[in-house]
Design brief:
The chain is an alpha+beta fold. It is built from 8 helices and 18 strands. The strands form 2 sheets. Strands 1, 2, 3, 4, 5, 6, 7, 8 and 18 form a 9-stranded mixed sheet that branches. Strand 13, helix 6 and strand 14 form a beta-alpha-beta unit. Helix 3 packs across helix 4. It is globular. The chain starts with 12 loop residues before the first strand and ends with a strand. The relative contact order is 0.14. It binds pyridoxal-5'-phosphate. The site of pyridoxal-5'-phosphate has 12 residues, from helix 6. Pyridoxal-5'-phosphate binds next to helix 6. This is Branched-chain-amino-acid aminotransferase. It catalyses: L-valine + 2-oxoglutarate = 3-methyl-2-oxobutanoate + L-glutamate; L-isoleucine + 2-oxoglutarate = (S)-3-methyl-2-oxopentanoate + L-glutamate; L-leucine + 2-oxoglutarate = 4-methyl-2-oxopentanoate + L-glutamate. Its EC number is 2.6.1.42. Belongs to the class-IV pyridoxal-phosphate-dependent aminotransferase family. Pfam families: Aminotran_4 (PF01063).
Length: 370
Amino acid sequence: MTIASTTTFPLRFELTPSQAARDEAEREVILSDPGFGKHFTDHMVEIDWTISEGWHDAKVIPYGPLQLDPSAAVLHYAQEIFEGLKAYRHADGSIWTFRPEKNAERLQRSARRLALPELAVDDFVESLRQLVAVDGQWVPSAPETSLYIRPFMIANESFLGVRPSQRVAYYVIASPAGAYFTGGVAPVSIWLSTEYSRAGRGGTGAAKCGGNYAASLLPQQEAYENGCAQVLFLDGETGEHVDELGGMNVFFVHEGGTIVTPRLSGSILEGITRDSIIQLAKDRGLTVEERDVTIAEWREGVASGAITEVFACGTAAVITPISALKSPGEVIGDPSAPAGELTMSLRQELTDIQYGRIPDRHGWLTRLDA
Ligand SMILES: Cc1ncc(COP(=O)(O)O)c(C=O)c1O
């Protein structure tokens, strides 16, 4: 089967307005304390794909439950991929998103790995614009708040056979998100999973597919039970190299300001925040190394003072300082250590760009409401 799929012309979207859209008062109550992933806007995008027609029938429809046949492939074989990005309200009221073409390209790479059809980059970006055109009032304006946008693609052919689905749907939903850290950015301890891997050689670690997250839930639970915010995975092959957290990439700051992050080995997700931090660090004249990092290097570096700061990064929390790594019988670092200086200044610079407070010198922002 050929998975031909990118359209050769832009998709046109039809709008069906919601009859159950929340009024301004209801929306303001939600936006005053949105939390994360709890509330959704009034509409969603749907684009259908079939093997014979390609992408077609693009629409913005009222947010609501999907109808899926119980035999839909996604429910049995997890043929599903997704993305996560944010819309930010700037001081003048305009709405922007950050490097959406990178999310579009990553969705295309995930699609290839999961034998799903690729959606054109322009159609992806247009799908975000279309949703914001009707639901823009759901983008909050309080500091560090945003509208979290979740594009995803599922195999919805009704057929119990293990082969790529010949019917697929792409959706975009959006959820207002409160500030990740309310009382100031707080360093976290993370849990080293010694028993479980997230990805193996030739597996789906570099794809953003639901199955990877399903595999991370049990070790993530172990992290919570041990008082840690996230789980750290080592590479599945040697069990020695740092891969990434359940939902974030990891960086180490070395004495003298060199920044080190695990290389894109094929088993970690190519984070867009990761890529942006590498660029910002290089702009400052810092040396950035993308290479293997062993747990032994982490342990010895923290003990000797060669590693001065550790942080995690991803769209949701931007940058989170890591104070300590815990595992059965060992704690590397000091759980009560404050956030590192470089960690916080990179975080400030990145959020200043995202919220339009400083010039966007790399052209990373895309306006969504115009
Ligand atoms: C496993 C994993 N690694 C890294 C990231 C960070 O990626 P990004 O910076 O694109 O949000 C995420 C979040 O999307 C993730 O789920």
